[in-house]
Amino acid sequence: MAVTSNDVQKLFLQAILSRRILSQQLAAKIWEKCIEAVKAANETLDIEYRNDRNSWDAFVTKINDALNPLDLEFSRLLDEVNGTEIYGVVNRKGDEIAQMATEYSALEIAYFKAVVEQIMLAPNESFSVSSLAALREVNSLKSSMTKSQAEATLSSFVAKGWLVKSRRGRYSLSTRTILELQPYLRSTYESEITECTICMEIVTRGIACYTPNCQTRMHTHCFNNYRRRNHQCPACKEDWTAGNNLSKLRPVGEAAFKDGQDQGRRRVPRKSTEEQEDADGEGENADEKDDEKDDDVVADPEPSQSEPSGKGKGKGKGKGKKKATRDESMEVDDKDEDEEEDSPPPRTRRKSSRR
Ligand SMILES: [Zn+2]
Ligand SMILES: [Zn+2]
Predict the structure, then answer these.
(1) For residue 214, how far is its CA from the centre of ligand 1 (angstroms)?
(2) Amino acid 265: pLDDT
(3) CATH 3.40.50.720 fits 96-342, yes or no
(4) Whose CA is closest to 197, among 320, 354, 322, 13?
(5) How far is CA 162 from CA 240, 250, 251, 286, 298, in A?
(6) Which of 139, 193, 200, 230 has the least C-beta neighbours within 10 A?
(7) What is the Å distance from ligand 1's center to 83 Cα?
(8) pLDDT of residue 321
(9) Which residues sit opposite 163 in a β-bridge?
(10) pLDDT tens across 209-240, in order?
(11) What is the pLDDT of residue 1?
(12) What is the pTM of this model?
């Protein structure tokens, strides 16, 4: 069998499927390597690597032609923290969270969902949760999970790039999660999701307009681009540059979190329990009954003994599948997300105005 230009795609697909999520830069480099490898095998082939946007986009289209029949998509997202262009293979079928079943047990996935829920429902659009609150979520699970199991599972979520842990010890959504689990997030947290006014992607880190009820939210990198040419809020037309208005912009993400805000409080989705949200300060046990119960049953094909601890390098697990993920996803995610710390403190409380 002669090597053909199709082999470039095949090689490339193999590389990205094992990595799941990677920067555009790295993806382009892999593409170049694939071309070199194929040309080395068959010198008569007339293919060439071109380092320009059009060639890249055309290549991505070809890749997606191959992936789409499998309900997969090689999809793109800008990293919320630094605006880096990230690509990943995304399941388009809507059961995307089920893909975690290859690395996690049903219980661990239920735990992941519970932690994600607390992140999505975090007060003040802080989209983050303390380790304490994250650990407390084991109480919401049907089967029991010990504290040390929970700790190990959390570190594994971080190691595999599903969650990010900040220096302050707070958990938030990773780029991988926002990219790969986007349909799940959008359908489950329809009323909590905020979109960037500029790029329309989900915002869990960025800025918010300070005008009461104004819907403007922007990623930091989108905001930086926007304000090069604009002075006004695109929605309420408030002049952001007048006086010290810029400093009034509210942070979205961990910087919006105020100490003590989530102590002893467990958030529940609005749909199931309307007024419990602010009804009491405690209630972690009371709430757990009616919360999300029907929704955490994720098909677990095999009784997978996945990731017994978070320390593992992915060696000798006997599962194989997703090992290579780790390095690349960390490479793109691991950049410090604490930069927002110097943003101004939130001014208003703004709870229900979102939609
Ligand atoms: Zn944006
Ligand atoms: Zn505004």
Answers:
(1) 16
(2) 63
(3) no
(4) 354
(5) 35, 26, 23, 29, 17
(6) 200
(7) 9
(8) 39
(9) 173
(10) 999 999 999 999 999 999 999 999 999 999 99
(11) 60
(12) 0.70
CA of 205 to the centre of ligand 1 (A): 10
Ligand nearest to the CA of 200: 1
Ligand nearest to the CA of 214: 2
- Measured between alpha carbons, how far is residue 89 from residues 78, 176, 188 in Å? 14, 10, 21
How many angstroms separate the alpha carbon of residue 49 from the centre of ligand 2? 45
Cα(201) to ligand 1 centroid in Å equals 6
Residues in the chain where the model's pLDDT stays below 50: 272-355
pLDDT digits (tens, 9 = 90+) for 318-334: 443 333 333 433 333 33
3-state helix, strand, coil in the chain (%, to 5): 45, 10, 45
DSSP, residue by residue, 162-199: SEEE-TTSEEEE-HHHHHHTHHHHHHHTTTT--B-TTT
Q: Domain spans of the chain?
A: 6-70, 96-342
User: Residues 6 or more apart from 163 whose CB is under 8 A from it?
Assistant: 115, 154, 157, 171, 172, 173, 174, 177
Q: What residues are neighbours of ligand 2 (ion), with CB under 5 Å? A: 209, 211, 214, 216, 233, 235-236
8-state DSSP, 349: -
How remote is the CA of residue 120 from the centroid of ligand 2, in Å?
Answer: 22
Indicate which ligand has the atom closest to the C-alpha of 230. 2
